[in-house]
């Protein structure tokens, strides 16, 4: 019995080359697609950056114009004048607050001095160590009047450390004395009228007024 020989007319080499060619084409197509996508994304990013830059520039210009209009509406010259005026007012207030107002001292003496007391002289020294020094001499209707006057000055919020000395009877029968006290600088600072309530007047004493 004769054996059959199976023959094939399909070349195996050509099939292998064709498969390799298809595989190479597929790889090249994939690389091309990826390159195209990357290029497209880069182009879109470039366009976006350009548009964002233009938008930012236009926004800055618009805000700059708005700022200039607002600045012009506030009138810089007027603002500068008001600023100078405010500085002058502040300086004036500072000078007034540090200015010694002797009228406060005279008002206090007028309020605290009894009708039975008379002052003959008045000395005021602003160079004292603890504020200002106050001294004067005077006459009283009696020793009781001197005691009452010392009590009235001790209750003063402006006069501190009142001292009566050399209390003697004068030839005309009146009691003569010397007086010293201290006045704090802060108590003499200028205060606008109505800023602080005045202290109530002292009680009337029964001593006989000096004729």
Task: Write up what this structure looks like.
The protein is α+β, with helices and mostly antiparallel strands. The chain folds into two domains: 13-74; 100-188, General secretion pathway protein M, EpsM (Gyrase A, domain 2), CATH 3.30.1360. It contains four helices and five strands. Strands 1, 2, 3, 4 and 5 form a five-stranded antiparallel sheet that branches. Strand 4 and strand 5 (175-183) form a beta hairpin. Mean pLDDT is 75; it is low at 197-211.
List keywords for this structure.
single chain, 211 residues, Gyrase A, domain 2, 52% helix, five-stranded antiparallel β-sheet, alpha+beta, disordered C terminus, 4 helices
User: Which topology of the largest domain does CATH recognise?
Assistant: Gyrase A, domain 2
Averaged pLDDT: 75
How are helices and strands ordered from N to C? Answer: HHHEEEHEE
Number of domains: 2
Bulk shape: rod-shaped
Low-confidence stretches: 197-211
- The CATH homologous superfamily of the largest domain is called General secretion pathway protein M, EpsM
Instruction: Output the CATH class name of the largest domain.
Output: Alpha Beta
Helix content: 40-55%
Strand content: 15-25%
CATH architectural label of the largest domain: 2-Layer Sandwich
Question: What is the end-to-end distance?
Answer: 181 Å
- Class based on secondary structure composition and strand pairing: alpha+beta
Number of strands: 5
Count of DSSP helices? 4
What is the rounded Rg?
A: 53 Å
Biggest sheet architecture? 5 strands, antiparallel
